[in-house]
Amino acid sequence: MATIAPSRRVRRTPFTPGVEAAGVTGYTVYNHMLLPARFASPEEDYHHLKRHVQVWDVACERQVQITGPDARRLMDLISPRDLDKMAADQCFYIPVIGRDGGMLNDPVALQPRPGVWWISVADGDYWQYVLGVADAIGLDVDVSEPDVSPLGVQGPKADDLMVRVFGETIRDLRFFRHVTLPFDGHDLVIARSGYSKQGGFEIYVDDSAMGMPLWAALIAAGEDLGVRAGCPNLIERVEGGLLSYGNDMTRENTPFEAGLARFVNSPLDYIGKTALASRPAKRMIRAVTIEGEIPACDRLWQVFSDGRVVGQVTSAVWSPDFQTNVAIGMLEASHWDAGARIEVGTQDGMRHALVRDRFWI
Amino acid sequence: MATIAPSRRVRRTPFTPGVEAAGVTGYTVYNHMLLPARFASPEEDYHHLKRHVQVWDVACERQVQITGPDARRLMDLISPRDLDKMAADQCFYIPVIGRDGGMLNDPVALQPRPGVWWISVADGDYWQYVLGVADAIGLDVDVSEPDVSPLGVQGPKADDLMVRVFGETIRDLRFFRHVTLPFDGHDLVIARSGYSKQGGFEIYVDDSAMGMPLWAALIAAGEDLGVRAGCPNLIERVEGGLLSYGNDMTRENTPFEAGLARFVNSPLDYIGKTALASRPAKRMIRAVTIEGEIPACDRLWQVFSDGRVVGQVTSAVWSPDFQTNVAIGMLEASHWDAGARIEVGTQDGMRHALVRDRFWI
């Protein structure tokens, strides 16, 4: 297995010293930044995440910050979701699209304070799209990447750990809402959110210098809770049906195909609205169980039925808890109903598989 | 050293089987794609590149393809360089910018055939900017990423190798010009270009299925020339002063600061023109020699003089041929003249350094 070459272009994060000290053994690159992908083994990391609490370096969830007089106008132009329905303390998952209706990212938008928008992006330079729109129309906005690095606290004991650092009020925070609380005299935006189904928080660390002190405080406070460094876990996210832009959906797909129709409800004339109206889903995200042994899903696997391509699988891995290969696929209408039998073409050969009615949750 | 985690999001290329068979030992990620970074050792790869010929998987140099009635209008909007001066067979290096004059990429544009533009990009989703501009104005264009994967043939024996696969006419190809020649009955665009100073070619493989047959043909034809798999080499590129977007310049910098003023000459009202007129360079790319031992330059190194920050170093490595640490920095006017003495702050401590008048070429 090849190692990852050091360079400034693949950016370190404010938490990288903590990640390295914790013995990271696998990285990926996400938004031109290091994202830890493995500490002990994927299985050990997974069991720990589902039982205890982990601190995650998810600094790679970069913010596209929009400010200025036309900030809301720009947001309205790019959001398929009705922003009038967003509460001041709410995190809004938005499948953003281009003029043809194809997905460009699936970020979470929030307003850390009035007049400031953060679009917390999945992998991709979506800021370039936002900037292109603003530059072309001549909007009076500033589009930037601020010094904001999310730190995740994930797992069933996340509340217990966070209370020790931020106080009891953190327990009252609702899902996908944010609150501002101090650490070491510095106010930090904290949301109940995160890329796992185990519950937890994301702390928007808006000063790199605070990164390691906060990391160290969380690790120290959680010793008896079994806290350790962790990272988004492939097994857990596939079990939970958490989508990954670039893996499970791309510009080829509409939000409808990604199963995100409920987030498409803006009454305004946003970019791509016309196209979406004429692109009903011809394929849809589905949970898939694959039989037999499978290799690493490091490429798109075509899905077949009677020799005809009827979809694709884009994430797949063995689940120790469910004792099956869990997978995320996109299936055509003829095969997207639960119970449909399909064949998955891996690099190691064809495997029998079954479409399910839900993910493993 | 941590390995890189497999996932579809970090895309394999048409040449990855060849790269793996050749024993790649280091990767980086570039445009959401695997880019080999090391085979034997950086030093061995370097010596080989400067003496023989290598085949490079540079599929990560993705094309932003623009077609449609408004294609030229869109190109004129985003190009600071005068496209009227671009010959039909020419490759045009263009420092592309946003409205504030900051660089968004430094791609090479070409027209593989009339009516079709390819913008061959450095690391970054510049297609999102192009699409944002097109979507916002409502231009009649199609912006896509076609199935085009460049394969590099680099090194002093590159001509000798290419002749054996594409015929003698390849020798007549001028620098940064392209020609269309057949391989296995399929026409391929070939340019005399590449990310080294050793000479060579880039073959725009526009059908993934042709990737490995072409790779294998080049390796087989060059056995007596000592051909082997290679990749852009950090030592060689710093010696030659080849810039890397994301390392040596970012959106913070104008083309002037990156030393690219000669490519800013369009008479049209392109986006960012007004801003550039009011942003003369306050700092400039320079070659820097650093004394003593240095660690891997995996982060920005601040440059000091009398305790004041006067610039930064963003790429640095030991050069076996020149027996010194070669580096690329960006220095303020007070210290950008050759002979200026500076201090470089590495993660292992401060190092004495000297600004040079040119790179090692």
Summarize it.
2 copies of one chain form a homodimer. Chain A has 361 residues and is α+β, with helices and mostly antiparallel strands.
Distance between the termini of chain A: 33 Å
Number of strands of chain A: 22
In CATH terms, what is the fold-level topology of the largest domain in chain A? Gyrase A, domain 2
State the helicity of chain A in percent bands.
Answer: 10-25%
Overall, the morphology of chain A is globular
Give the integer mean of the pLDDT values of chain A.
98
CATH class of the largest domain in chain A: Alpha Beta
Structural class category of chain A: alpha+beta
**Stretches of chain A where pLDDT falls below 50 for ≥5 residues?**
none
Largest sheet properties of chain A: 6 strands, mixed
Overall radius of gyration of chain A: 21 Å
CATH level-four homologous superfamily name of the largest domain in chain A: Probable tRNA modification gtpase trme, domain 1
CATH architecture of the largest domain in chain A: 2-Layer Sandwich
Structural features, described:
- Two copies of one chain form a homodimer.
- Chain A has 361 residues and is an alpha+beta fold.
- Chain A has three domains: 16-58 and 148-237, 2-Layer Sandwich (Gyrase A, domain 2), CATH 3.30.1360.120; 63-144, 2-Layer Sandwich (Alpha-Beta Plaits); 282-361, Elongation Factor Tu (Ef-tu), domain 3.
- Chain A contains eight helices and 22 strands.
- In chain A, the strands form five sheets. The first copy, chain A, has a six-stranded mixed sheet, with helices on both faces. The first copy, chain A, has a six-stranded antiparallel barrel with strand order 17-20-19-18-21-22. In chain A, strands 6-9-10-5-11 form a five-stranded antiparallel sheet.
- The longest helix of chain A has 12 residues, at 126-137.
- Chain A is globular.
- The mean pLDDT of chain A is 98.
- Strand 1 of chain A pairs parallel with strand 2 (26-30) of chain B.
